[in-house]
Specification:
The chain contains eleven helices and eleven strands. By secondary structure, it is of the alpha/beta class. The strands form four sheets. A five-stranded mixed sheet has the order 3-4-5-10-11. Strands 1-2 form a two-stranded parallel ribbon. Strands 6-9 form a two-stranded antiparallel ribbon. A hairpin with a 2-residue loop joins strand 7 and strand 8. The structure holds iron/sulfur cluster (3 copies).
Length: 295
């Protein structure tokens, strides 16, 4: 659809990361009215429509039109392409997945890309980027962005322990007393943690040493060791830099829904903070035990 000059100028005032969406919505509205050219009146009409009927058309993106981004805020970040999507819109989070699924990793428990996509969707639903841009006064710097990582097994190749929000999959194991152990010792040879002892046909797993990689269950020919439902270990507040810190465990064995809930709480902590501290500092200010109570 064609746009006249004044309409185009108005569109240019919309923050770049919502321009595409706003353009589509205005053109849809114009089409519904039988127009083939978007003029200033269509833009203003569309704008009133977005803001006046929120239940139908006021998408969160349209709401951002009320608070256009001061592009100066992004000038430093623009030196780093990784903080922008393919359309040039800012994205103030990075999610790193391990490559287990792509390379058929023998340790893989769960395809980390699946959870990574859900975390990404959640951050988009929460309008994390827009709200963070709005919250930060002055220049947005790389350390203001949120770092996340998901790994498909406890080997943690994507390094979730040093991210603001880190997750690795795990496969809890247990001994099934109904399946007699044949003392083949394959599980003992497989376990890199030395967590298994076999004595007189009795299998014992040290729960403090076991990292729930599930490998022993995969090699047990008798079914004496079994796995239960796959879970996620969820950690927050990891960082590198001048004072590196490992992330603190929030949920040692979480379902997907609880994992997403932890993300909600983290986002709320970041966006409601009055200061621009690193996330680890915010976690320490709130207290990990208090954060756990919110999940
Ligand atoms: S984290 Fe685990 S599943 Fe992912 S690539 Fe590393 S070893 Fe493989
Ligand atoms: S799940 Fe992994 S760490 Fe735990 S006992 Fe089995 S092989 Fe060892
Ligand atoms: S692999 Fe299974 S059968 Fe073999 S020693 Fe371990 S528990 Fe027993």
């Amino acid at each position: 659809m064609e746009w006249d000059k004044s309409a185009s100028l108005l569109l240019e005032k919309v923050p770049p990361f919502v321009q595409k969406t706003v353009r589509e919505k205005i053109e849809t509205l114009a089409r519904e009215r039988g127009k083939t050219l978007v003029t200033e009146s269509e833009v203003m009409e569309a704008r009133e429509s977005f803001m006046g009927r929120p239940q139908k058309t006021a998408t969160p993106q349209a709401a951002v039109v009320k608070n256009p981004i001061d592009n100066k805020k992004l000038s430093i970040l623009k030196k780093y392409p990784k903080y922008f999507d393919k359309d040039g819109n800012p994205v103030l989070y990075q999610i790193k997945s391990c490559r287990g699924a792509e390379v058929n990793c023998p340790f893989l428990i769960t395809n980390s890309n699946i959870l990574a996509d859900k975390l990404r969707n959640r951050l988009e639903e929460l309008h994390f980027t827009e709200k963070l841009i709005d919250k930060i006064e002055g220049q947005i710097l790389p350390h203001h962005t949120m770092k996340l990582a998901v790994a498909g097994c406890p080997n943690s190749c994507s390094m979730p322990q040093i991210k603001d929000f880190g997750v690795h999959a795990l496969e809890p194991v247990y001994v099934d007393p109904d399946c007699a152990c044949t003392e083949c010792m394959q599980c003992v040879e497989t376990c890199k943690e030395g967590a298994i002892t076999i004595q007189g046909g009795q299998v014992s797993i040290d729960k403090d040493t076991c990292v729930h990689c599930g490998l022993c269950a995969r090699v047990c020919p008798a079914g004496s060791i079994k796995t239960s439902e796959k879970k996620y270990r969820v950690m927050i507040g990891g960082k590198v830099g001048r004072h590196p810190r490992f992330a603190l465990v929030v949920l040692p064995q979480a379902e997907e829904s609880a994992t997403l809930k932890v993300l909600d709480v983290c986002v709320d902590i970041i966006l409601s903070s009055k200061t621009e501290h690193r996330f680890r500092t915010l976690v320490e200010q709130h207290g990990i035990e208090e954060i756990k109570k919110r999940i």
